[in-house]
Design brief:
With about 375 residues, this protein is mainly β. The chain contains 2 helices and 21 strands. Strands 5, 6, 7, 8 and 9 form a 5-stranded antiparallel β-sheet that branches. It has a 5-stranded mixed β-sheet with strand order 14-18-17-16-15, with no helix packed on it. The structure holds beta-L-arabinofuranose.
């Protein structure tokens, strides 16, 4: 063997020893549990907020039309900008298999988390649980779609839930931080009923609460102004039931006046009939203002659209204009509209993350486009 081949042999042997040592070291690390393995987040296994907050900010993530939160199921996103940051107040869907009923028993939610985003390129941060059903004296179960508002140096979380008589009411909880935690008022808002509160504060500082939802949301049981367990939707040719609206008191904890019904009219000024399922109000009302015009948007329920109507007063009437969002995966559809960092966004949900299970939803966002005449371009996800 000449000296050249001896050198080659030696180099080969050294490399083999190095590879073997690396393999042994790797195996030892795995066996001792010291190897840093990335935990695989599974829906409903809530990670501590600190872990989520420590994830380094990814640069330029494309968030549009993708599940924004994947470690728990979320739905009904109400988005607001507070102090230049975008906060999302969603429902927290649970990973259970309760049978579906027309009363919505499968939506058996027990708490709320708050999320926030510093811009539209970074994933939301989970601020953890901010309110739990066990901390709300008047509430029995089913904490459904919430909304939030800021006034009087206080953040308000408005939420519907069934009371101890099995009737949906709307409650309020307060915090000094938009990220909570929130402390619930001991009683629900006097005069409130049904579901899906949306609180809109007009330019003059007056706040309004819109609410109501059919079927599981019980709106048709309040036709007479009293709860009637046998209450039904009007006949197909009669005007559809409108969402309800009430002015909020200055302290934002109660209604300042009577609850009114919001009229949604067709282009000829006639009320939309109950039988026109593709246009009538079902649930998930949201109000925003764009160029001085009030927009009332809502879910059409069993036809699965997010529709919108516009008007010149916060209490209506509103005239039907068209659709913001076509049907998504899953039965329900629910949204909010917000301006953030110079653009308008639609927050909505579908059931992509669970492969289409209606009560295991995930929130998403898409950019909204207004046309010159104030109409909104339909988003087809
Ligand atoms: O999340 C429960 C209910 O489903 C909401 O209150 C409705 O708007 C629908 O999204």
């Amino acid at each position: 063997m000449n000296s050249e081949s001896r050198k080659n042999r030696l180099a080969e042997a050294t490399i083999n020893v190095l590879i073997s040592s690396a393999v042994i070291l790797f195996a030892l690390l795995i066996m001792s549990g010291c190897m840093p393995t990335k935990p695989e987040p599974t829906p409903n296994s809530v990670q501590p907020t600190s872990i989520i907050q420590n994830i380094p900010k990814p640069s330029e993530v494309d968030l549009m039309k993708k599940p924004l939160i994947t470690h728990i199921y979320t739905a009904d996103p109400s988005a607001h900008v507070f102090d230049g940051r975008l906060y999302i107040y969603p429902s927290h869907d649970l990973d259970h298999d309760n049978p579906a009923t027309n009363d919505g028993d499968q939506f058996d939610m027990e708490d709320y988390h708050v999320f926030s985003m510093e811009d539209m390129q970074s994933l939301p941060v989970d601020h953890g649980e901010v309110l739990n059903v066990k901390d709300v004296p008047w509430t029995e179960k089913q904490m459904w779609a919430p909304d939030a508002a800021f006034k009087n140096d206080t953040y308000y979380l408005y939420f519907p839930a069934r009371d101890h008589e099995n009737i949906f009411r709307i409650g309020v909880a307060t915090s000094k931080s938009p990220a909570g935690p929130f402390t619930a008022e001991p009683k629900y808002i006097e005069g409130s009923f049904s579901i899906d509160p949306c609180v809109f504060i007009d330019d003059d500082g007056q706040a309004y609460m819109y609410f109501g939802g059919l079927w599981g949301g019980q709106l048709e049981k309040w036709k007479t102004g009293q709860f009637d367990p046998e209450g039904r939707e009007p006949g197909t040719k009669e005007p559809a039931l409108g969402p309800r609206v009430a002015r909020m008191s200055a302290d934002m904890l109660s209604f300042a006046g009577p609850v009114g019904e919001v009229a949604i009219l067709d282009a000829d000024g006639n009320p939309i009939p109950d039988g026109k399922n593709s246009q009538r109000f079902f649930e998930a009302g949201w109000v925003h203002k764009y160029n001085g015009v009030y927009y009332f948007s809502y879910s059409t329920g069993d036809t699965h659209y997010i529709a919108y109507a516009t008007g010149t007063s916060p209490t209506g009437p509103f005239t039907f204009r068209g659709y913001i969002l076509t049907p998504v995966l899953g039965w329900t559809t629910h949204h909010s509209i917000v301006e953030f960092q110079g653009k308008w966004y639609l927050f909505y949900h579908d059931a992509t993350l669970s492969g289409g299970v209606t009560h295991k939803r995930n929130i998403k966002v898409a950019e909204l486009t207004y046309n010159a005449d104030g109409s909104i371009e339909t988003i087809d996800p």
